[in-house]
Backbone:
């Protein structure tokens, strides 16, 4: 009799676990969005080392365009925001492991990423450019960088663009390091966004005359929020927040604040 009772209890526990698991994977039934609301804060993955998108100011506060976009999304959901600063090469692993809820870090859409993640609507657009020494007459166009050494992170969106242009990588993680690699001759070019390079020169005006910047692309949407598949309700509310931020002018204001130009309309 006891064995029969134990077997029945085990079946009941397994059935309950099965229902709970289904609730966590199906949107709207104990989904990640509900977990975020119950928890009271949204966990956002961002680099924290990429000015003016996500960086630390003179008071060591995490600031930037992406940081404020994430805060707006959290406010729209009705929760606080908690930032987890993560190197770009590890940021999707953190998302996969459930250590963060979303990534707000100028993530571009790719078919490969779409196999694993759902994406929000785009909220920002980028124009790629590359930089080399001002007296480097051999590099004038994008075609000229083929086979040249580029100081970039090959796993980043910009790194992928540089790879498609045929560069050889000198792997670096930060813009300042990339500039240093060009000065010391370890690299000939570095790719970035036009905004990113302009921001560097705003912070280091004494260096601007040493380099030349060459535009490498038309504006393309490169700001999406990726979410693990199975959380369509979270994607929906993120889209609602971004649509509202477009309509009320917040996105444009943030772009002007951090970039000096409205990059939110393409």
Residues:
């Amino acid at each position: 009799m006891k064995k029969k009772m134990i077997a029945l209890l085990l079946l009941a526990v397994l059935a309950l676990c099965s229902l709970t698991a289904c609730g966590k994977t199906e949107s709207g039934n104990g989904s990640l969005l509900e977990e975020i609301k119950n928890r009271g804060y949204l966990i956002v993955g961002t680099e924290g080392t990429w000015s003016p998108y996500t960086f630390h100011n003179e008071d060591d506060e995490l600031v930037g365009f992406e940081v404020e976009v994430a805060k707006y999304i959290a406010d729209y959901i009705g929760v606080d925001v908690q930032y987890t600063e993560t190197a770009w090469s590890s940021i999707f692993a953190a998302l996969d492991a459930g250590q963060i809820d979303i990534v707000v870090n100028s993530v571009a859409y790719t078919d490969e990423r779409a196999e694993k993640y759902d994406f929000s609507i785009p909220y920002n657009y980028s124009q790629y450019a590359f930089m080399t020494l001002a007296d480097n007459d051999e590099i004038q166009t994008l075609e000229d960088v083929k086979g040249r050494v580029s100081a970039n992170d090959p796993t980043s969106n910009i790194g992928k663009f540089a790879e498609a242009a045929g560069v050889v990588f000198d792997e670096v993680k930060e813009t300042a390091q990339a500039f240093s690699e060009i000065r010391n001759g370890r690299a000939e070019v570095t790719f970035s966004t036009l905004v990113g390079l302009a921001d560097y020169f705003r912070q280091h005006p004494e260096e601007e005359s040493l380099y030349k910047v060459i535009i490498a692309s038309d504006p393309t949407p490169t700001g999406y929020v990726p979410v693990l598949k199975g959380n369509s309700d979270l994607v929906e509310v993120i889209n609602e927040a971004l649509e509202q931020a477009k309509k009320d002018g917040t996105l444009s204001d943030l772009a002007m604040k951090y970039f000096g130009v409205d990059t939110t309309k393409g």
The chain is about 40% helix and 20% strand. The domain at 28-125+222-259 is CATH 3.40.190.10 (D-Maltodextrin-Binding Protein; domain 2). The first helix runs from residue 2 to 25. The chain has a mean pLDDT of 89.
